[in-house]
Write a structure and sequence with these properties.
The chain is of the alpha+beta class and 128 residues long. It is built from 2 helices and 7 strands; from the N terminus they run ββααβββββ. α1 crosses α2. The longest helix is centred in the middle third of the chain and has 20 residues. The model has no long low-confidence stretch (mean pLDDT 86).
Amino acid sequence: MAFFKKVKQKINGKWYPRAVTVGKPVTTDQVADRLSQISTVSRADTFAVLKDLGRVLADYMAQGRTVKLEGVGTFYYTANASGKGADTAEEVSAKQITGVRVRFIPESTRTTGNKIATRSLVSNEVFW
């Protein structure tokens, strides 16, 4: 079950629901245990792969690649730039970049009408 709290926005004074998490984050050990229970892979092997996943993703993304994991989603970088931009393409430089973020889009499937039918990581069992 998912949980939310009621939050009043200062900008417009309106109330909105905001999703909240419960308890401590699930650990790599817990994920490895669960994966080993539902597969034929040992807990130790699963744990080792999960521990190296971040390093592998970072390596590919450092090469300018987007990483798509089936059943999970797509990871990619975006850059934040300072100032108001440049007047010409020649004036654009890496010095304008003030930050880099990793973005994530959960995998989804579409119906024949091109509507999103399911989105991974958002269970059909989630009730508010």
